[in-house]
Amino acid sequence: MPIVTITLQAGRPSEEIRQLMESVHAALVSTLGLAPDNRNQRLIEIRPEHYFYPAGRSSDFLTIEIASFPGRSREIKAALFEKIYHNLHAALSIAAEDVMILIHEPPFENWGINGRQARNPRTQ
Hints:
CATH superfamily: Macrophage Migration Inhibitory Factor
Number of strands: 6
Number of helices: 2
Order of helices and strands: EHEEHEEE
Structural class: alpha/beta
Strand content: 15-25%
Strand order of the largest sheet: 2-1-3-4
CATH class: Alpha Beta
CATH architecture: 2-Layer Sandwich
Shape: globular
Radius of gyration: 15 Å
Largest sheet: 4 strands, mixed
């Protein structure tokens, strides 16, 4: 179950926020094979005067951080990036240049789920 954190400048309408979150989740479902109800997602809005983004980007700039179990291939990750960019552009006309994605893959022993340390299902 990946943990997704989306960070962006505050001020977007609620419907845009919902579409943004749906777009990212749909990409995870289609590329990683998650069940549609397997969702652990949060959105952080930062006041414009406290939100700094790289030169050449617009106020649409956002970051998406995905924490997930390790082991997915480079190709799967590339497909996920492409699908997120595609979905955001299709739903909200957000340019790929305004989206930065980072995948964190902490080892299984660094995950605590259901009161226990996670284990690699491939080595059990």
